[in-house]
Amino acid sequence: MTIDEAIAFVAQRWLAFDAAIPLRQETSLRDRIAVFAHSVDASLHRRFPALAAASDQVILLIVAKGVELSGTVDRSDIERELGILLPP
Fewest Cβ atoms nearer than 10 Å: which of 4, 10, 17, 79? Predict the structure, then answer.
């Protein structure tokens, strides 16, 4: 397992989530990502068992990078909404 594989997995899951899960239009990006992160957590750990020992911050980074990789949300919007800086 590589971190890039986990990020790519999350990106695909985000695309499916974003297309299939109806959230109110006024739901903030931060809240949308939080709902998504909660929903993807179990499948992420099943697919990548090594992440079971990962901190919440590492999981958040993987989720945020996955959302960025999906191409549906600008990096600056993710960083602003989550209050983090994403690595290149």
Answer: 4
Query: How many of the other CB atoms lie within 10 Å of CB of 86?
Result: 14
The domain total for the chain is 1
Domain hosting 35: range is 3-82
Is residue 87 included in any domain, yes or no?
Answer: no
The two three-digit tokens of residue 34, written as one number: 């939080």
Q: Give me the residues of the chain with pLDDT under 50, please.
A: none
How many angstroms separate the CA atoms of 57 and 72, rounded? 22
End-to-end CA distance of the chain: 20
Q: Is the model's pTM score more than 0.90? A: yes
